[in-house]
Design goal:
2 copies of one chain form a homodimer.
Chain A: E1 3-8, H1 12-23, E2 28-34, H2 40-47, E3 51-55, H3 63-73, E4 79-84, H4 90-98, E5 102-105, H5 110-122, H6 129-139, H7 146-149, H8 154-163, H9 169-176, H10 180-194, H11 199-208
Parallel strand pairs in A: 1-2, 1-3, 3-4, 4-5
Helix pairs in contact in A: 3-4, 8-10, 9-10
The first copy, chain A, binds a DNA duplex (30 and 30 nucleotides) through residues 153-156, 168-170, 178-182, 184-188, 191, 197-199.
Domain Response regulatory (chains A, B): 4-121
Organism (chains A, B): Rugosimonospora africana
Modified residues (4-aspartylphosphate) (chains A, B): 55
Chain lengths: 218, 218
DNA sequence: GGTCCGATCCCTCTGCCGGGGGAGGCCCGG
DNA sequence: CCGGGCCTCCCCCGGCAGAGGGATCGGACC
């Protein structure tokens, strides 16, 4: 099956280069191109790409915003591969946090680029699976049973996620920059809503209901 | 040309393991070892390694600070490969932002580790997806790694499994028909072997390493 | 304007959890 | 035979967790 690729970059030269590289592969196909992040929802809806190559830095709607919006609204979003010039671009990390599946350096060799696209399209492997899933899960809506049924508030969900990283109450407090007492209140509410006796049971519920996931897989 | 590798980790066991793995490769050579991030500038200046393996989490100067300092002061710094236990460790993001070239999971297989070192040493191919893919590599399906590496006894494994069902120590004791003190001893041993602070972290490790799984699947 | 809810913080108090010891019985293997 | 794992149980103790109260503030909603 050919992998459907969409390219979004404000620099036409980059688009031409990427199109040439991607188009030369028998198993890859460029199904859409755009020069503005604002077009992303439209082209995704129309062409249903498997992989979306998008520049983090663009005038108007940048890759970060586009990614976030996409994962928040699309029922079956493409895998997002962020394009960047500098490997230490701070936006990249924000993009990854927003749910991007990986990133690609503009100066990477063509063979590396297409390999990255294939890897990303395969979906189940790659970069920071757990972290990405967690973040994507926070924005997008993939299924929890018990946790979703608990109707946690944003803050409570955040606290549960931190509990599921093994943090103690003081550590969560530090991370959220609030008092320990506040965290304890949230924890108490989470436990009550989930019907759990202690934080360990809550973390188990989080795993079992897919609120958090081990090493990958939706 | 042999790739010169320096290893910095506060855990001597990890250092021994890495040294054994790296040293066994004909094209890799361990030129320095340290247990404290404070030693990094010194060993880098003295031994001029190509690749620096460093643990993100260490008492005193951690990998993050060491990396930052190194890249800020060294004229020709080594490529930094960060060592971490959890792939979603928040420090990892910070380390990458600080200039690390990639990260290595402690539970990765030796072949994946040396491959990662070679990729990093090659320098220009800093493509994360490709590198990470080799690291995360064959992860899926059956991978106890962390838990298996802990070499738990039968009883300890049984206790961990019960911990992962959300049982308290008294409940585990009742289930196993032994005293609570016995259970506490097993729990203590499990925590020590897994390097966890509390039972919640142990349960997370059990899920993340596939020792137990949500809802099904091998 | 009043009500409800979410987020924040504070207090007390019970108790299990987890660390650090030690100690006896068992079976296996050198 | 005797050492070493493993399982079992015991004591002491500091500390955080979790229950149960109550309080303030802001925004959303009516």
């Amino acid at each position: 099956m050919t992998i459907r690729v969409a390219i979004v970059d404000d620099d036409e030269l980059i688009r031409i280069g990427l199109r040439a590289i991607v188009g030369a592969q028998p198993d890859l196909e460029v199904v859409a191109e755009a020069g503005d992040g604002a077009d992303v929802p439209d082209i995704v809806a129309r062409t249903r790409p498997h992989v979306l190559l998008i520049d983090v830095r663009m005038p108007g709607i940048d890759g970060l915003q586009a990614t976030r919006h996409l994962l928040a609204t699309s029922a079956d979003p493409p895998r997002v591969l962020v394009i960047t010039t500098f490997e230490n671009d701070e936006y990249v990390y924000d993009a990854l946090r927003a749910g991007a599946a990986g990133f690609l350096l503009k100066r990477a060799r063509p063979a590396e680029m297409v390999e990255a696209i294939r890897v990303i399209a395969a979906g189940d492997s790659v970069l920071f699976p757990a972290a990405i899933r967690r973040l994507a899960g926070a924005y997008g809506g993939s299924g929890d049973d018990r946790v979703r049924a608990a109707r946690l508030t944003d803050r409570e969900a955040e606290v549960l996620r931190l509990m599921a990283t093994g943090r103690s109450n003081p550590e969560i407090a530090e991370h959220l920059v609030v008092g320990v007492e506040t965290v304890k209140t949230h924890v108490r509410n989470v436990l009550a809503k989930l019907g759990c006796r202690d934080r360990t049971q809550a973390v188990i519920a989080a795993y079992e209901s897919g609120f958090v996931n081990p090493n990958g897989l939706p």
